[in-house]
Design brief:
This protein has 536 residues and is an alpha+beta fold. A hairpin with a 5-residue loop joins β3 and β4.
Length: 536
Amino acid sequence: MADIQREIERKYEATYPNQSDRALPDLTAVGGVSAVVHQGVTELDAVYYDTVDHRLAAASITLRRRTGGADAGWHLKLPVARDVRDEIRAPLSATPPRTLTGLVRSRVRSAPLVPVIRLRSTRDVHHLVDADGTLLAELSVDVVRAQRLTGGDATTTWTEVEVELGRDQQPAFLDKVEKKLRKGGLRRSASASKLSRALAETTPDRHAPVAPERHTPVIPERHTPVTADRHTPATAPRPPHEGTAAAPVLAYLTAQRDAIVALDPAVRRNEYDSVHRLRVATRRARSTFRSYSKVLDRAVTDPIGAELKWLAGELGIDRDAEVLTERLTGHFAELPRNLVIGPVRTRLRTWAHARRGGSRRRLITVLNGKRYLALLDALDALLADPPLLPAGARDATTVIHRAARKDFGKLAALVEEALERPSGPERDLAMHEARKKAKRLRYAAEAALDTLGKPAKQAIRGSKALQDLLGEHQDSVMTRTTLRDLATQAHAARENAFTYGLIHGHEERRADGYEAELPAAWEAAERATRGLRGTR
C-alpha cells in the first residue's frame, strides 16, 4: 500500500565554496521559532530510476530507492506547484513497485526504467520548533556525493541546505526562514532537485546545453513538439509555422496532449475532478481536428480522433456516475426529513458504489492497456510531423473565421430544431447535440485566443454560457432516467418510491426553466461569437 505525503520545501546553495565550512545563521531570530533542535546526522543512499533519455527528470519527476533514515523505501515525487510535490512511498523491494510505475506510465510508455544516478548523502538535521515544541520546519545540511550509473560513470559532490515545512504550517513561514538564510550567505538552488543537478554535473559533455526542467510531459527526441515557447529569446530562430494557421492549431493540440499525459497519474490516484479534466482534454483535441480539418489532413487525424472518442467514452463512465451522484445527493440533502420515505440514501450509496467501483477498475485497466499508450504515441507522432494541408500555411485569422462560421452553422441548425420541437425526447436530443456543437465552437475559440485576442475571449464566454445551460438540461434528463431506475429497484424491494417521484418532479420543473431560457441564451451566444466568425 502506497503512502502519500504533501511536501513543501526549498533548497539552497552557498555563495561560498563549502557550506560545511560555515555555521548556519541563528534561526531562533526567525519569528515564531523558539529553538533549533539538533536531530543528529544520518547517512542516506538513494538510487534514482529513469528512462535512458531522462523523461521523468525532464518533467521534474523523481523515482528513487532509498535506504537509511526513517523513511527508507521507494519514493515517487510528482510536482504540484513551485516548491510543492506529492511524495508517494512504497516499501523496499528489488525492483520499482507497480504501484509507482503505473503513475509514470503515460510518460515512460514502454521504455524501461533503469538506474541513472546514485546519491549518497550525509544529512545533518535540525528541527525549528515553537514554544510548544511544534515542528515548524525541518532544516537539513546535505553533503551529496553523486555517481552516474547510465551513460557514463562520472561523479560530482556538493553541499546544499534543504528546508521542509512542518505539517499543517503556513508556507509564508518559509519566506521568513529564507530571508535569514540569504543574509547568512545562502541562495535558492538553481536546480529543483538533487537528481537534476547530478544529471547536469555528470553529463558526458558538460558544455552541451542541458534541457531545462519543466512540468509538461517529455517525449523521445524524435517526437519533439513543433510549438513556440513563449519565453524564447528574441535572438532565437523563429518557431515553425509562425504567423500561419498551423501555429495556433498545433499549439492548442500540444497543450491537450500535455494535459492528458500530466493528468494520467491524478486519475490513477482518484484525485477530485481529474477524470473530468482528462476527458475534457481528449474532447478538446478531437474537436480541434474537426474544426480545423482544412489545416490538418483528416486521413491522419480521423483515426486518432476515433481513439480519442473511445478514451472519452471510457472516462465518461466514471464521470457520469460522479455527476449524477452529486446531483442526487444534493436533492436528498435539501428535502425535509418527513419527505424522505424509505432507505433512499442507502439505496443511492449502493447504486453509486456499484457504478463507481466497477468503472474505476475498468478505467485503470484502460490506462494500463496498449491501446491507450498507442494513442499517446500517435499524438506525439502527429505533433512531430503534422500532416498540414495548404490552408495550414495561410493567414491564421482567415482560416479561424472560416472554421468558426462552419461550426456556428451546425450549432445554429440544432438550436433552431430544439426551439421548434415541443418538450419531450426529440427536443432533449436536439439540445444535447447542440451542447456538443457549442463545445466545439468554444474549443475553436480557445485555439484562436492568442491570434484573435478579445473576439476569441468573447466567443469563449458566450459559447460556454450556452453550453452550460444545455449541459444543465442534459444533466436533468440523465438524473430523471436514474430516478426512474432507482424507483423501479425500490418498488421491486417493496420500498416506498414516493421520494424518487418527488425529486423527479423537481427535475422536470428545472428542465422546463432551462428550455425557457434557451432563446435568450442563444441570442447572446450569437452576438458574442460574431468577432470569432468575422461577421458583424
